[in-house]
Amino acid sequence: MGASPLLLTFLVAVSCLMAYPEVIKLKNITRLCHTKSIVTVNGKFPGPRVVIREGDRLVVKVVNLVPNNISIHWHGVRQLRSGWADGPSYITQCPIQTGQSYVYNFTITGQRGTLFWHAHNSWLRATVYGPLIIFPNHNESYPFVKPYKEVPIMFGEWFNADPEAVINQSLQTGAGPNVSDAYTLNGLPGPLYNCSVKDTYKLKVKPGKTYLLRLINAALNDELFFSIANHNLTVVEADASYVKPFETNILVIAPGQTTNVLLKTKSPAPNATFFMLARPYFTGMGTFDNTTVAGVLEYETPSFKTPPLLKPGLPAINDTNYVANFSSQFRSLATTKFPINVPKKVDKNFFFTVGLGSSPCPKNQTCQGPNGTKFAASMNNISFALPTTALLQSYFFAKSNGVFTTDFPDSPLDPFNYTGTPPNNTLVTNGTKVEVILFNTSVQVVLQDTSILGAESHPLHLHGYNFYVVGQGFGSFDPNNDPAKFNLVDPVERNTIGVPSGGWVAIRFQADNPGVWLMHCHFDVHLSWGLRMAWIVLDGKLPNQKLPPPPSDLPKC
Known about the structure:
Layout (H helix, E strand, L loop, with lengths): L5 E9 L13 E4 L2 E4 L1 E3 L8 E4 L3 E8 L7 E4 L25 E7 L5 E7 L9 E7 L13 E10 L4 H11 L8 E4 L16 E4 L4 E8 L5 E6 L4 E6 L2 E8 L2 E3 L4 E7 L8 E9 L11 E7 L9 E2 L9 H8 L20 E12 L14 E6 L2 E3 L6 H6 L32 E3 L2 E4 L3 E9 L8 E5 L4 E8 L17 E3 L1 E4 L3 E9 L3 E7 L2 H5 L3 E6 L20
Parallel strand pairs: 1-6, 5-10, 11-14, 13-21, 20-22, 23-28, 25-26, 27-35
Antiparallel strand pairs: 1-4, 2-3, 6-8, 7-9, 9-10, 11-12, 14-19, 15-18, 15-20, 16-17, 16-19, 20-21, 23-24, 28-33, 29-32, 29-34, 30-31, 30-33, 34-35
């Protein structure tokens, strides 16, 4: 676009009070009648909205004034040849240490829609997150009716305890972590929680108008059902890619996913207010936060009486069929203006199991995981151990020795009936293993859930790429019969997909972005337990197919 870059300064502080970069000081946040210091960006919770246009360059200086190391991930941004700005700690950068800063500098290329940014170090994203809204080019319009108003709605999770203490205790004892105390809508838990009527998100609307709701699931560990009483929603976009519009009254949204929906308000205005509810979808064996967050949809009409408050119905907590049917409705526009580029021919096939497992209890310690072990999670039974220096630096400067190995398995080394009776041995192998692929390789990955320690849905997120979801099903993937049913005509394009509970999903992408790219479960508990791996996409031959050197202020470990 040639516009001057948008320059922001994120001052990361323990809930600091400031107007861009002014005074930074401690501030407490109160939810559920519980007050604590939280890590925020610019004292805002949720964090500030970043609004840009397709083609803009975004320059964000992050200054860290808290005791924790931190890094910021621009979730869903392709980061074409700008992998140094992707943000996951120890993958593309060392984290920004206390008192240090780092400038994230990248261009939004060929993307428009709703994404978000969040911390990518331990569980700091519990409070460090905000919307990233990319408008189309000035001369472009939406491929749907122009909304009267646009409203970001972020789902989050609130812990009365310090989330860092929660995961650290879990990693120490080997047990599952304590669950959150509430879900939030734009940082507010709402009236169904203790002491929270005053902390309720209210969406005030006019009758007979169309609103674009930009829904973002920034919760740590939970997929959510969402519904607005007596109102249908039209889904028009997923993960910043337009989709063929479809109507629903109940959405499913996994952590890391965004969904744009059109809400057409009633006319004339009804004499009622309407609950907007979200609660978890969960099929695993562990504990989870089985509570409901409520916001209120209010029509802007004077009413002398208190109107009735209507409540939507939501599916059962474990309604996997509803989730599968909902997920299958997503289709790309696949028009001349918004074409798809799904690889028809596959150069490299991969088959990755995703699921839970266990690690042995250290000597002289009692562990509270399965049968006295520690909980772990893995892909192809490799539980990914974070290195102590960033992978991208090690790779770029050819200093991988002792940092990572390139022997991540293309498929499980010990195949079993993935969704049947689990094997007796649930121990995982620890390692920092990566998969290396040539530039422009067309890749297919089948992600297979396992029944080890309980089948559950896993939202898998790929950094640096969008991928096409060409197929999904229940049970174990059948390489002889399932590919014949793949959709190569209008598959949805996403950056995060739920691997079905007790099932599989097949994705394809063209490896046209050189660098080191993390792929992981977006449940932070599973991420902490090792459910992650990394791709190294080698440079191509042409200058515009190579990763440039790092910026001079790249943080040191």
